[in-house]
Design brief:
The structure is a single chain. This protein has seven helices and two strands; from the N terminus they run αααβααβαα. By secondary structure, it is mainly alpha-helical. The chain is globular, with a radius of gyration of 16 Å. The protein is about 70% helix and about 0% strand. Helix 1 runs antiparallel to helix 4. It has one domain. The longest helix is centred in the C-terminal third of the chain and has 28 residues. A two-stranded antiparallel sheet has the order 1-2.
Length: about 180
């Protein structure tokens, strides 16, 4: 239990650093922390290679979904010159994917609960990010949060399904890697 709390705490520290550091001109501080957090998370897992693959796939999917929200004009990122998704948002998503491996792994297989929790709590991260200056809502706040809630309600269970399928069929497991060489 302590391990899961420490893991979740490490992600939360990384989230705050990713959200706050660009506003203070501390470029890549959050990204570096999140990279260290992911390495620490991987060090606690037996299937490091397949876990890293899942983190990359799930994190990229999540960051791309936020990029789509930005391209649709639902959200914007005031602290970045990047035209798609800022690097700190990729770091947050890769960190979240790592949290799914340890501290949030109890959600795997509980898709209805994951969807409900994502709908209710997912928008709070964006609201906090907006209040900290890392994200802007283009539409009225209520409308934007409702769109984000719907997105998260679909996205989190889908990410869990993807992670489960990748774990079940991983070609990166050491025994399978030897067979491929």
């Amino acid at each position: 239990m302590l391990n899961k709390l420490l893991n979740l705490g490490g992600f939360q520290v990384g989230w705050f650093l990713c959200v706050l550091s660009p506003s203070f001109g501390l470029l890549y501080v959050g990204e570096i922390w999140m990279g260290l957090y992911i390495l620490f998370t991987l060090s606690q897992l037996n299937d490091k290679q397949s876990a890293l693959f899942r983190i990359l796939v799930v994190g990229t999917f999540g960051a791309t979904a936020d990029g789509i929200l930005a391209q649709l004009g639902i959200i914007s990122f005031p602290t970045t010159m990047e035209s798609w998704t800022p690097t700190y948002l990729y770091a947050i998503w890769y960190g979240f994917a790592a949290a799914l491996e340890i501290s949030l792994n109890w959600l795997k297989g509980r898709y209805g609960l994951a969807s409900f929790l994502a709908f209710v709590f997912g928008p709070f991260n964006y609201l906090a990010g907006a209040n900290l200056g890392a994200i802007n809502f283009v539409f009225p706040q209520y409308t934007t949060l409702l769109i984000i809630a719907a997105s998260w309600a679909i996205q989190l269970p889908l990410l869990l399904v993807i992670a489960n399928k990748l774990k079940a069929k991983s070609i990166l497991q050491p025994s399978k890697c030897r067979a491929l060489s």
